[in-house]
Amino acid sequence: MMRAIGLMSGTSLDGVDIALIETDGERVHVVKGHNNFLEPLGPTGYRGYSDDEKALLRGATKDAEGVVLPGDRPGRLPQAEDFVTEAHAEAVERFLAENGLSASAIDVIGFHGQTVIHRPDQRISIQIGDGQALADRLRIPVVSDLRRADIEAGGQGAPLVPVFHKALAEASGFEGAFGILNIGGVANATLIDSKGGMVAFDTGPGNSLIDEWMQEREGKNLDDGGRTAARGRADEPLLAWLLMHPFFLRRPPKSLDRNWFSHKLAGQLTTEDGAATLTAFTARAVARAVDYAPEVPTRWIVAGGGARNGELVRLLNYHLRAEITTADAIGWSSAYLEAQAFAYLAVRSLKGLPITLPATTGVRAPTTGGVMSRPSSAN
């Protein structure tokens, strides 16, 4: 078993998630406690972004629309890349200190970076952040740029977490047909049938539209618990129109750039009705995922920030007609599941194991990936 740290800064642009796990790149070490409740995989941490830092990242994401080639860094992207690297370094240094760990105790770091644009059909997916600079500062090997190899081999480059989802489910002893739903800025589903077959893809918007709506209308970062949406009424004609978008008609594998949809589609609706409409949009887009399931899931595990949105979870219960469980309720981590996944992927990358599959990204064959950065001897 290797000790790996995973780092994740998602499309919600809220901060850096950090998690430590032990894995051999195939199995995930879990401990079952009372009533088979799973003990945490390892310690976790968080480094939030300030309002100014979020503004920088939003600006860089906007500037990334001008990218033509994968190496392009127009506008604020260079400044944002330096910031992302610095913020992740700070997060790891604080995490190690708080948990009494030395750099030598960690075998590898999985560094996702910050996605600013995702256009797989043009073979472009940019996650800013300097893996070599991070390795040099922390004195720990870093695996970054985990999407590139998949895209160059014809895949979507996303979602990346399904192989971890499956390993965690196997370690937890799950059986039958079930789905694992991660709701970050974008939502993605991993659908596993009773024989262990798997398909995975982005389902549509996650929290991003809801968060942007609340930021614009209320100056808040999110709809806390979905309370604003619960007071509103969804605009059914608008929802029907939104769900006619060509993305929802494409068969998986498929992935989504967070900028394909805008919260401004809610237009002149009241704050409550707009929140209700955008929340319903996320839930109904997830429900469309069942159309592509090899076997209809009887159980769903919901993770990511969306798992804390009570109104969204209520709507998922209604539309999916299956048992809905949050990751936290079974001993997984709703908040840190993706960070744990990137720790797992880093170890798989070190060992040359596949991190993407034809059924998860559409890549032609199982593909490993990631760029290894070892600390420079001069530092």
UniProtKB/TrEMBL annotation:
Pathway: Cell wall biogenesis; peptidoglycan recycling; Amino-sugar metabolism; 1,6-anhydro-N-acetylmuramate degradation. It is an enzyme of class 2 (transferase). Keywords: ATP-binding, Carbohydrate metabolism, Kinase, Nucleotide-binding, Transferase. Gene3D superfamilies: 3.30.420.40. One of its GO terms (molecular function) is kinase activity. The keyword Kinase applies. Its EC number is 2.7.1.170. It catalyses: 1,6-anhydro-N-acetyl-beta-muramate + ATP + H2O = N-acetyl-D-muramate 6-phosphate + ADP + H(+). Pfam families: AnmK (PF03702). InterPro entries: Anhydro_N_Ac-Mur_kinase (IPR005338), ATPase_NBD (IPR043129). ATP binds at residues 10-17. The keyword Nucleotide-binding applies. Belongs to the anhydro-N-acetylmuramic acid kinase family. Catalyzes the specific phosphorylation of 1,6-anhydro-N-acetylmuramic acid (anhMurNAc) with the simultaneous cleavage of the 1,6-anhydro ring, generating MurNAc-6-P. Is required for the utilization of anhMurNAc either imported from the medium or derived from its own cell wall murein, and thus plays a role in cell wall recycling. NCBIfam families: PRK09585.1-5. HAMAP family: AnhMurNAc_kinase. This is Anhydro-N-acetylmuramic acid kinase. It comes from Methylobacterium trifolii. The gene is anmK.
